[in-house]
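Researcher: Next sequence.
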Amino acid sequence: MDNTRKISVLGSGWLGLPLTKYLSKKGYQAKTSTRSSVRAKQISEQGVDVCVFDIEKISESESSFLDADILIVNITSKNLQAFSELIAEIEKSSIQNVLFISSTSVYPNVNKVITEDDGLELEDSKLFQIENIFRKNKNFKTSILRLSGLIGYCRHPGNWFSTRAISQADAPVNLIHRDDCIGIIYSIISQNAWGDVYNGTADTHPSKRKFYSYAKKLLHQPIPNCLESDVLEYKIISNHKIKYILSYEMKHPDLYDIRFD
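Model: Next structure:
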């Protein structure tokens, strides 16, 4: 592996900033982005290389952000036109590979286990449409990482459902810890696993009722209210592919064993 490669991480939030720091420690020339010059200063003070970059204002953004070999797209925008304009800029850059961080929300509730190769994606999903414009581009190779619900560190599931009841309470949860998000991303990059789609989720899928009650107890909070439903709608996301193709070993396979520090 050539650790001198340059990696740009679009987005410096809960996942993007720790990811950039992790990649830097692994020897990559990693930098991140923010839309705010004030936040850019704060990030820079942490010793992180950062650019001001906004896909909806590319002409006003720092062009040096796209001076990289790999681009990791990790923002919540679903602006299809803005992503199309970003791709046009990528085509003119040195970027050879793109990792698009997506979500397992592109899958419908089909009351069974879902894998990456089932072809069950929701065609009207904006996220799925954005995935496709990246994957269809022949100027660079794109891999898609679809993450389940994000937990860990400041994202404690015990803080959820404080003001609303849980619907479909007996449906299984699909969640993943940030440590594993970063671990899977690093595996894709270090193994040059480009041109494919991967799901990221923990091994265990307890019911919402059981897991969120457990998470509330960790914080000594009241058990959440649950809405009862006669018709159960759910999906169970499979993580078999990352284990088989990437030989990835989950750091937090069991949701009940996670320590939320």
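Model: Helices lie at 16-25, 37-44, 80-91, 126-135, 178-190, 208-218, 240-245. DSSP finds seven helices and eleven strands in the chain.
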